[in-house]
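My main concern about presentation is that the manuscript never shows what a single data entry looks like. In essence, backbone conformation is discretised, so a fold becomes a row of integers matching the chain in length. An entry of this sort, consisting of the sequence and the corresponding backbone structure tokens, reads as follows:
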Amino acid sequence: QVQLVESGAGLVQPGGSLRLSCAASGRIFSINAMGWYRQAPGKERELVAVIRLGGSTTYADSVKGRFTISRGNAKNTLYLQMNSLKPEDTAVYYCTADVESGPRSWGQGTQVTVSS
């Protein structure tokens, strides 16, 4: 099992930037992919971005060119750099970790609000 703790919540104006962080502990050497999901009020939870063990990434169309997912050198930290934020990016953002032969782990979520 992997434990995940997000940080970086905040209120930002449209067009602004914010960076989310996620600290992983536990079976971190079994992680083969990490990602960010988000859930806006009244909407389904959706994938924002994922980064795999080899470094390949996938982004939702809605965030391509604006968001960047990355992992720290120690591989136990995940980041999401969010630029050119829009009001529709407002959501609770969740960090996830996938390990071999185990269920996906989820963080507790962190609130991002984009508003003027």
In short: Residues 25 and 83 are 27 Å apart (CA to CA). The chain has a mean pLDDT of 95. The chain has no helices and eleven strands. The radius of gyration is 13 Å.
